[in-house]
Amino acid sequence: MPNVAIVGATGAVGQEFLKILAERNFPVDELRLLATKRSAGKKINWQGREIEVEETTHQSFKNIDIALFAGGSSSTEFAEAAVNSGAVVIDNSSAFRLNPEVPLVVPEVNPEDVKWHKGIIANPNCSTIIANVALKPIYDLAGIKRIVVSTYQAVSGAGREGIEELEAQIHAIANGGEIVSQAFPYQIASNLIPRIDVFGEGDYTKEEWKMVKETRKIFHVPDMAITATTVRVPVFRSHSESINIETERKVSVAEVKAVLSKAAGVKVIDDPTQDKYPMPLYTSDTDEVYIGRIREDFSIANGLNIWVVGDQIRKGAATNAVQIAELLLKK
Ligand code: 2RA
Predict the structure, then answer these.
(1) Is the distance from CB of 61 to CB of 67 less than 8 angstroms?
(2) What does the angle CA 279 – CA 283 – CA 289 come to, to the nearest 5 degrees?
(3) Which residues bind substrate (predicted)?
């Protein structure tokens, strides 16, 4: 059984790693929990074991086979040390995602890319993973000419701080109190913020470029026509995405529903007569990517509109990383 380390074990994604490793019965011999100095010494119970959180150092990875990095700056600081110690790093930060030497993997889309890793495998951005799981069956069915995606991203994407900030602001609005905004540039309660991460080329944000560039890399289509607008919404967990797709080949809505219904990792909830469609309140804490509102886009010859929702911390981060670890074990 592999020895596993979790770097960033006390954060939102790190905590989810613990839950998912247990739920999926991932075989673990030693589990080493690593975090910043501030969290060192904390005791965490996992599967009947009491494990003390240690400060991450360059020496933390001795005898570790798989190192799950939850994200953030620790990846650039410690991933190389983990690889040099012989571990395979599965990294949830954006540090290595576009590095041509590093596979970027969504197990439902490009599992074969795990095979050529050189020590690091990158876990894609949360909104990219959720979109890509939904796009793959349509890509295989009809080819894709162009994608226009608009996201409605939960505060969990900004980690524990984001979740606590929305909670505090809702409380302040209800009880009268000061609204403090630190995790986000503006008040998020009762608001939408059409800016996630920093602005970059062409006035698109880094989050928008992640969706474009990561999707191209995962699908191995470097010139895929894709554009994105990413928006933070006052929802705790689960990102939602409106995706407009122009397919290469004309397909009926019935055909699309049929392939999506059978696709790995997907659950279709789509019954307008019963008012059924996916919503973030009900998809949180689950691993599937939910798809509904599947309609023809009548404004173009081969157009489709779909509505996609997935738990950002699970399939958008921790579950996808653990699935990559499972592929590694199979390999
Ligand atoms: C967000 N994409 O939602 C980020 C998290 N990886 O902010």
Answers:
(1) yes
(2) 95
(3) 153, 232
| Ligand 1 centroid, distance to 207 Cα (angstroms) | 7
Please report, for residues 128, 208, 216, the alpha-carbon distance to residue 246 in angstroms, rounded to integers and kept in the order given. 18, 19, 16
> Do the Cβ atoms of 317 and 68 come closer than 8 Å?
no
Q: What percent of the chain has pLDDT over 70?
A: 100
Confidence label for 73 from pLDDT (cuts 50, 70 and 90):
confident
Ligand 1 contacts CB of residue 208 (under 6 A): no
The topology (CATH level 3) of 128-312 is: Dihydrodipicolinate Reductase; domain 2 (3.30.360)
Q: Is 321 helix (H, G, I), strand (E, B) or coil?
A: helix
pTM score: 0.96
Distance from the alpha carbon of residue 196 to the mean position of ligand 1, in angstroms: 7
- Ligand 1: does its nearest atom lie under 6 Å from the Cβ of 163? no
Q: Is the ipTM of this complex over 0.85?
A: yes
